[in-house]
Specification:
The strands form 5 sheets. This protein has an 8-stranded mixed β-sheet with strand order 1-11-12-13-16-10-9-4, sandwiched between helices. It has a 3-stranded antiparallel β-sheet with strand order 5-7-6, with no helix packed on it. It has a 3-stranded mixed β-sheet with strand order 8-14-15, with no helix packed on it. 37% of the residues lie in helices and 17% in strands. The chain has 14 helices and 18 strands. It starts with a helix and ends in a 23-residue tail after the last strand.
Length: 503
Amino acid sequence: MAARRAVGAAVRGWRRAASGGAGAGGGVPGGGGAARSRLYEHVREGRSARPQLDVAALSEREVERRRGALRGGDLGGIVRSWARLGEVRASIARLQAEKDQVAQGVRALLAAHDKETAEALPAYTSLRAQGRQIRLELQQLLAEEATLDEQFYIQALQLPNRTHPEAPVGDESQARVVEVVGEKPVFTFKPKGHLELGESLDIIRQRWAPVACLGPSLLLPVRGRGAAAARARALRHDQAALQGFPTHDSPRPAARRRFCCGMQPNATPSPIYTIDPSRFEDLCLAGTSEVGIAGYFMDHAVRLEDLPLRIVCSSTCYRAETDTGREPWGLYRVHQFTKVEMFGVTAAESGAESEALLAEFVALQKEIFSELGLHYRVLDMPTEELGLPAYRKFDIEAWMPGRGKYGEISSASNCTDYQSRRLNIMYSDSARRLRHAHTVNGTACAVSRMLIALLECNQLPDGSVRVPPALQPFIGQTVLTRPPAPLLRYIGPNQPGGGPEGP
């Protein structure tokens, strides 16, 4: 009972701090105020198992090389809190044992004597005094445990994963090119961008965005042709049966902190769209189905003989990327897009299982992009581009002639046991003991960015676009051509004769 009261008091005090009240505590070093973790709250409320974080495996150097809220110097304080928490819990266990012994001694005296005689005995008085002292010490230690527990977890949950020893160190410019596949397309004319191509083919409409508020571009089903939308469906369909992967539908709103799987929803600027927090405190629009799939495995164990377990999920994703002001036109950075995501859960018997699954996902990505005839390169991403969960990450960038440079179309990450330690994703090993699984994720197809590369790399001098052979059975055409007459005529105010006064 005392433990529950101490925990309750700590949580109430922390909530007051999180809402700007007095008594702030549990702040992140250098964070400039009280931090909050809904995953931690979720655990403290008894709705999930406690995260089993392995902070001892990290070094200050690894933390410093990542781009996160914490710096290398913060690790020492977190480890000290963790060590002190262990000491306090050991002291609590010792005092609980002593308390039980005192209680047994009191019961023995009461069994051997009547109550009045027992209470007059010096041994009884000594035991009662010892019991009161133990309860006082326990009360103090339980309060310290609650404070240390909150302080440790809120900070430690923001630590990054370990880093693969071969990962390049530094920012995006330090990415290492692992492989280049295919040849850049050669044009006898100046290539157009995907937006110009799409609008001339009447399959992309840019100016629809201010009304829709969904993104800067719209893929249009024009006169039943729906070429761009058909391409999107074809791309999704082609990936839905990857090597026999089971398919999974991820919910569009996701509990952003409960299933955070190591992502930081409170980053500034935030890439996440929050659903009215006054009504739905934990909900946001999911930026990737990885979050929902990881949540699907939360607090579950998988049999060793069923591993590795692979799932592919096609979902609508929402991100606030265009708020950055970078590339506000076209399909490269949009608020809403469709993505096919691969997710895998594997064992950690030898430690090499997740690296093998990562290699398998990258091989699948390469197979997909090669079948589509794209020219691309595989990059081993540097430490500052890994995010918090990734141990190692490979990005694939396709050549986009209209942009005159490569653009990212997919990534694949090995998160080792980082997500499983936070979300209690386990597996039964060969001895039937529960161990933390490893998780791997990879983008099979980000439809909007794939369309950029496909349109720009397959364009013809007259503005038409070749359809790659792999997609022709789904689209029913070998070349996308401009319709004889547009379905609609744009009469915006920036056009000659446009507006209400136009002809």
